[in-house]
Fold histidine kinase.
Amino acid sequence: MARRQWSIAAQLFALQAVVVTLLVLAGAAGAVWLARSDSRQAAQEEVLAVAQTVAGSPDVRAALTTADPARVLQPYAESTREATGTDFVVVMAPDRTRFSHPTRERIGEPFVGDIGPALAGHAFTTTNVGTLGESVRAVVPVYDEQRRIVGLVSVGITTRAINRKLLGQLPVLFGVAAPALTLAATGSWLLSRRLRRQTHGLGPAQMTRMYEYYDAVLHSVREGLVVLTTDRRVALVNDEGRRLLGLDADAPVIDQPVAGIDLPPAAAELLGSGRDARDEPIVAGDRVLVANQRTTRFEGAVLGTVLTLRDQTELRTLASELDSVRALTEALQAQTHESANRLHTVLTLVELGRADEAVRLGTRDLALAQQLTDRVVGAVTEPALAALLLGKSAQAGERGVDLIIEPDCRLDDSPLPTGDLLTVVGNLVDNALEAVAGTPAPRRVRVFVGAVDDELVIRVADSGPGLAPDRVADAFRRGWSTKSTGRGLGLALVGQVVRRHGGSAEVTRSDDGGSMFTVRLPGGGERS
């Protein structure tokens, strides 16, 4: 059976309880020691005052000169002892012979203890063991009229009496220590409860394991993770999150406000807003990211927000190329279907003996298709681009859109890789076809691809409603598109290609009233 581990809160409470108890006990012991010291000091002062008073009494001086000093001094000493609360008042001759003592039988016996300083004329206090036990005593000389020492007075209080007084003070001391101990223990208990709530009752080993797992997961997941507090400060960002957002590995971002961090605009807007987002595409430099952001809560309290990021750049690029291929395939299928219908019509006319009409029908559509093919192939030597434009022409025809290849369109040698070229042209044309969908006839899309002043220029204009002025700046940066939700990354991919090759892109008003997207890329060569 596994041994139950104490939580951090329980360990801290136990440690605090022990420390507080030791401190209170040490304080109480110190207070007792101080009280004992004060009691001894007070006893020394008291016995010295009483001894000086007795030594200065004329009756004492007179009695010391009589033949039987004890007869007068014993009653006087006892009355003084009882009045002052001391334990003994002893009057003696300079040779130590007692003239008074609480025990009458001790009168006439020598005094036990040090009297040297008093014989030298100095009053002093000391602690000695005498016939009554250990005592604090004072010894004072008695002078006659000629300032000769004619006797000594010793007044004392036994240590037992001092301790009895001290014991009377102990209830007061412990009466102060007990509430202090109770108050400290209560504070420690409240603190341990708060700590237990904050640590969820976990022990040190459990918290260490949790941190190790947490750190391992954060550094191993392939998704970027950013955690923000309620005041929009970064609480955590993992390695992948730094990479996807273009942050340096050692950049100080923890506990920094989002507004003060150099983030891609779309990511900064999403993080700063704190709104929930589900599979929202954002562009970060050359990357297309899919972001999910949720508000985090614990026991009903809002802790902040968590943003997860997935890099879908390659997937989106392939999806765009696949869309172009699919569109081309659909266009070819449509042409095949239309050609089959024409062929059946021609065959039927021949069977009906109307050969002239059959010839005119077949040659007319064939001539139109051949003219478009000849013009595109003659202007564009890149086979893939020529096929793309032919496919888009057929696709536009099915939608009732006139796709016009500009007469001066010509591209002999593209500086772009074929994939990038198809991405730019295909997405711009698709965007234009979407823009004119549902608009009144005539619906037109104009395409120009060619070299102008050592630049490759790709220009696509449409007759659609045009791009709103407040959305022009975001068109390429945030992947704006006329397409439905979840498909608006075409222009973002175009923007990626433009940035990767050091080109430029702009949106203006076309002659047909819609939008005109112009992409300029360096290295176009001389225009033919």
Observations:
- Residues 316-522 form a domain with the Heat Shock Protein 90 fold (CATH 3.30.565.10).
- The mean pLDDT is 77.
